[in-house]
Amino acid sequence: MFKNTKLNKTYNFLLRFAIISASYGYIAYQLFYNDNYKQTYNLFKIVNQNKFAYLFLLFIIVLMCINWSIEALKWRYLIRKIEQISFAKALKAILAGLSVSTFTPNRIGEFLGRVFILQKANPWKAIFISILCSMSQLMITLLIGSISISVYILKFFIGNEIIPSYILFIFILLLVFINLIILAIFFNVAFISKLLDRLIIKKWRRIKGYFKVFSYFNFNELRNVLLFSLSRYMVFSFQFYLLLNFFNVPLNMVEGIFLISLIYFIISAIPSIALAEIGIRGSIAMGVIDYYFNTTLQMNVNFNIEVIAATSVLWLINIALPAFIGNLFVLKLNFFKEK
Description:
- By secondary structure, this protein is mainly α.
- The protein has helices at 2-32, 35-47, 53-79, 87-101, 109-115, 123-156, 165-187, 190-199, 205-211, 219-246, 253-269, 274-296, 304-330.
- Helix 5 crosses helix 6.
């Protein structure tokens, strides 16, 4: 028993060390070896002449705190079905999950960082609940993005001679149909438990029990989860809009909401590894905004450096800073039981 306890302590230490090293290494790579930050720094020296610049960035950091606090409330609201935790503990779990996710493909490590802060709940059940939590955020991103794409098509493409109008209408109807199916599945997620209960063979009875967590949530609870996700979406979209304006990209509120939702829609649809994520975000944002100004509005302008600056600072404040803090909580995670 003593030997096993000692080994588990050693394994916990090694895994914590590996996670923290990878997380800090990733952040350092982005800060010191990524050309985006060199461009951002040069541009910021110019914008820094604004005496309110630091107050503005402080406000963006406050919005970051609100952003992740909403995520903590949402996860706590879901996880209470298997374990009651405080808001402080939920926030620690979110930040720990974020630090683990920085270097994993599509941030799948986020689930592991969250569930191991729990003390009583089964880790597999907690992982499935965390997946449901993340899916709600993805659904909001896809839903709002689909609305923006439809509006964009109706406003700028209907009636031109490049693409026949009936093809555009079919595409819009397809988007509506896909979103309705996704919403139907989400609000009937308990059906997944029943379906898997029939499909999974008896000797895997334990796995069936894990999937039953989907049946714990009724329609009203799932609706509340979507409202949490919508609130969070509004916060980080507002951050992005403010940063674009801060770096002198001339977008009004309507244009900003419209283009940002398109950017997030495309980003969510593209699989990525963490090391390439910031480059992907910047490239997509540049592509969308450049197309809007130079093709849709037919203006000969270039805001590439400004857009890169906005996406880079947003990543630094919304991902790097909380991940840096989250590593402090990774130090206390127990991946292997010590008793």
